[in-house]
Structures are given as C-alpha cells and as structure tokens.
Design a protein that fits this description.
This protein has 2 domains: 163 residues, 3-Layer(aba) Sandwich (Beta-lactamase), CATH 3.40.710.10; 134 residues, Beta-lactamase (3-Layer(aba) Sandwich), CATH 3.40.710.10. The chain has 13 helices and 10 strands. The strands form 3 sheets. A 5-stranded antiparallel beta sheet has the order 3-2-9-8-7. The chain has a 3-stranded antiparallel beta sheet with strand order 4-6-5. A two-stranded antiparallel ribbon has the order 1-10. A hairpin with a 3-residue loop joins β8 and β9. 52% of the residues are buried. The structure holds glutamine. The site of glutamine has 11 residues, from loops. Glutamine binds next to loops.
Length: 312
C-alpha cells in the first residue's frame, strides 16, 4: 500500500528543490511581499489523519479560495435562487475579465470568477451591515476549520481596496444591470476582506473536509450541507475553480480544486481526502504553479483522479 505520509513528504522535498516557481502576484501590492520559496502541503484522509509537510502551518492569503465558502454560505441563505444571479458554466476567460459580462447582460458565468464572487458576496450582505456579513463568513471558516485564530489580514484587504480598480469596475458594471443590490463599496468591502482571510494549509484542509465527505465533517459528524449540495459545489470547483486553467487542471490533476492568487489551492478527493497546498508563485492563469504540480503528483501516486487510475 502507498504510504500517504511518505508521498506527501517526498512531494514537498521535491517542490522545495524546484527552481520553476512561477511569479508571485503583484497586482495586490501586499501579496508581492510574500516569499516565493515557501511551500506547504496538508492532506487529511477519511479517518481524519493529517499528513503535513513543508510550511503547513504558515498562514497565507486565501484570496479566491474564500469563494468556495461564500458560495456554500450563500446557497444556505438563499438556496437555488442564487442561480438567477450567477451562472454555472466555465468562463474560458481570466478571473477578472469584463468582456463576457457585457455580452451576458451583467450575469457572471460562475460563482468563482471575480464578478460571480462579488455577486455572491452581495447576496450574503443583503439585510446585514458589512461588518456582520464579514463576521459571518469569518466565523463560518473558524467553525469549519475548528480554529478560532483564523483572521482577516487587514493590510492585504486595504492593499486590494486601494488598487482593486478592475473589481470596482466589475461591480459597478453589474450594478448597472441590477445584479448587485447593495451599495457597491459595501459589497466590495466585504469581498476584499473575505479574500484577505489568512489560513494555513492545515486549517484550509480541515475546513474543506465537508466537501470530501458528502457534506459532513466526519470528525464531528455535523452536516454542513446536503450530499447533493456538496457534490454540486465539487462539480463547480472542477469546471470553474481554476478559471481558464480549469481544463488543464482537470486534465492533469483530475480533482475538484479551487485556487487563489495567494498561491493556495484547496482540492478534494471525494470520499478520500481534503487537500491544501500552498506555493505563492503563479502561472499565466493566476493559479499556483507548483501547487498544481504537487497535486498532479499526489493524485497520480495515490490513484485519486476522479477519472480513473493509471493502473492497467
Ligand atoms: N482578491 C482577488 C481579486 O479579486 C482574488 C483573485 C484570485 O484569487 N484569483 O482579484
């Protein structure tokens, strides 16, 4: 039998030695300061055993990975009504693209591109003050990760607020189609702050366990979402979780996964494991380069691709 701890350690050692690390995101000035040499990986199996290597406990900016959790929350609040605001198709476009929005009357393609995530954040915000909505999102993550120390990195949020002209444009554009209900700066304030939540691979892999186990946290036995909803969120992660790199990620890794420009990826091997990996250097699509390489190695060695194994 393949020993998971050995596999995780070997992958981390190999990643630490690689020179092709990609480029750290620099359009959010605060993220540009992160050390490109970092690498962390945590795999939590179905029994709850934690397999960790590298910088597994260093908090990093989860950025767009937060969109998996805001989608989960929003579906819990408004149910399938959410799909009147946001589509469920891959965009085939960069995460911050504006062109598709015009053609499609302000309705974003999916909840994981920036426009879609801003629209989802707006749904969570309705009926609340921005501070309450952000608190709700943060507490949800603390609950899932069973860790009250998870925090919003205010410096990252401020940095993005100062320079987030693209997102400001997207939100205003959607507002003109009435896809955003709240004042644009309120919605964006919550969006920038949930993107700026800092978590370690250990916390993130713990938080993602409900997606790997039919909507339930197997430790507490508590149900977070129904099995059907977990399956559907996973489907969206597979098809849209890496923007215009989603096809390549499915081809190489074969697992539902969500990336963030902080260099993190949350991936799910249904029934088997919740996985978090972090390497800040990004590829041309804004997805962690070595994060993807590491997941490809893991999925191959463990035979975890949802599309089948390499064994004859
Ligand atoms: N906060 C980032 C942005 O809106 C999130 C993008 C990402 O992680 N892909 O640009």
């Amino acid at each position: 039998m393949t020993d998971l701890q050995t596999v995780v350690r070997e992958i981390a050692a190999e990643m630490a030695a690689r020179h092709d690390r990609g480029a750290v995101a620099n359009y959010i000035p605060e993220l540009a300061r992160v050390d490109a040499g970092s690498f962390g990986m945590v795999v939590i199996d179905a029994e709850g055993k934690v397999h960790a290597a590298g910088d597994a406990d260093t908090p990093f900016s989860i950025q767009s990975i937060s969109k998996v959790f805001t989608l989960t929350l929003a579906l819990g609040m408004v149910g399938d009504r959410l799909w009147r605001r946001v589509g469920r198709e891959p965009s085939g476009n960069p995460f911050n693209s504006i062109v598709q929005l015009e053609r499609e009357c302000g309705v974003p393609r999916n909840p994981f591109i920036n426009a879609g995530a801003i629209a989802v954040t707006d749904l969570i915000l309705s009926g609340h003050q921005p501070r309450e909505a952000l608190g709700e999102i943060l507490r949800f993550l603390q609950f899932l990760a069973r860790d009250q120390t998870i925090y919003v990195d205010r410096a990252v949020a401020e940095s993005e607020k100062r320079t987030g002209f693209r997102n400001i444009a997207l939100a205003n554009y959607m507002k003109s189609f009435s896809v955003i209900d709240n004042p644009v700066d309120f919605t964006l304030g919550v969006y920038f702050h949930h993107c700026a939540i800092a978590m370690s691979c250990r916390q993130l892999a713990t938080a993602g366990r409900y997606l790997a186990h039919a909507g339930r946290n197997p430790d507490s036995g508590l149900s977070v979402v129904s099995p059907e909803r977990a399956r559907r969120i996973n489907a969206l992660m597979l098809t849209c979780g890496h923007y215009d790199g989603s096809g390549e990620f499915a081809y190489r890794v074969g697992l539902p996964g969500k990336s963030g420009v902080g260099g993190g990826i949350l991936a799910v091997a249904p029934g088997k494991a919740s996985i978090a990996v972090w390497s800040p250097g990004l590829d041309a699509n804004g997805n962690s380069h070595l994060g993807r390489v590491a997941l490809e190695m893991l999925a191959k060695r463990m035979g975890w691709s949802i599309f089948g194994t390499d064994d004859a």
